[in-house]
């Protein structure tokens, strides 16, 4: 079999990182990214990009922890290299605060982030409405820089990237040996996945360079995440809403909630409002499938449905998707050598 041709559909954080992992693990493969939108027009560009995992109820915790750990380790190495500023990857310390002590005082990811500990009474004085808190240091991916850095890495490894809307994965079967579906919320239409639904998120990106620590209300609805150039203020979680139009009432509500956690934000300037649709599912769809029409078979690897936590686990799920692509290629090579006998 000649160099296997692999198409990756989608150019958000999942598609780009999956294409990179495939190119790294299968140097003989010819990898192409096909997407109707690239940065800065993806959901991934709206995200804060904080590495604080979201929990997927349909996925075993040890698997989620493994994905998070692989992602943290990968980004920690970038943050500790000369590439850090171009890639938009940096360490950030701060607090997750709760009005009441949570049932789970030690989340499953507490030994992956750095220096996780309960907040002291003195620290809690900053948050008079909260009674419990956790302090830790984690990583943040700033977007667009991280997506542009991934695109640059892909080009350097010879990966092709084309703007193309794919209406049906089958349309790729005559051009490619394997297709990887990283279409995010687009998979709802592309593969008719009824288990995938949008969770709308509205955020503000503001200029407030004096804010250096992250603050997250334990429920995860209100958060302040400082990036290299702008601070992301959030947020909302609106299940089944497909609207990408910012709502001015919501903007005021987010700003007020964030100012009650960090009053200095009243001086923030240049407020930009963004909306994104989290591709949500009970579990990430990370599996092989073989499409078959008229006796012709076409292997597909799905990697979508990362909901509110795509940045936190992207490298771990990309590695697993690349492993599944390797299995598809081994099967194809096995059948082509049997056909020659
Ligand atoms: P996307 O970024 O949407 O990429 C999908 C790609 O597929 C796009 O390029 C699209 O154009 C392409 N596509 C779709 N359909 C087709 C088609 N038919 N043909 C061709 N191309 C197609 N996660 C975290 O871990 N930490 C955070 O702090 C965080 N904050 C967030 C804040 C908000 C407000 C939101 C909305 C999300 C946040 N997330 C966060 C979640 C994170 O953004 C997502 O999990 C992640 O971006 C999903 O990435 P993706 O590549 O699957 O999807």
UniProtKB/TrEMBL annotation:
A Pfam cross-reference name: DAO
Signal sequence coordinates: 1-19
Binding site for FAD: 43-44, 166
Keywords: Cytoplasm, FAD, Flavoprotein, Oxidoreductase, Peroxisome, Signal
Compartment list: Cytoplasm, Cytosol; Peroxisome matrix
PROSITE patterns according to UniProt: DAO
Any one GO cellular component localisation term in the record: peroxisomal matrix
Catalytic reaction list: D-glutamate + O2 + H2O = 2-oxoglutarate + H2O2 + NH4(+); D-aspartate + O2 + H2O = oxaloacetate + H2O2 + NH4(+)
Transmembrane annotation, as ranges: none
GO biological process, one term: D-amino acid catabolic process
Ligand binding (D-dopa): 223, 278
Coiled coil: none
UniProt EC number: 1.4.3.1
Residue ranges occupied by any FAD dependent oxidoreductase domain in the UniProt entry: 5-324
Family assignment from sequence similarity: Belongs to the DAMOX/DASOX family.
Function recorded in the entry: Selectively catalyzes the oxidative deamination of acidic amino acids. Suppresses the level of D-aspartate in the brain, an amino acid that can act as an agonist for glutamate receptors. Protects the organism from the toxicity of D-amino acids. May also function in the intestine.
Protein name, entry field: D-aspartate oxidase
Organism the protein comes from: Sagittarius serpentarius
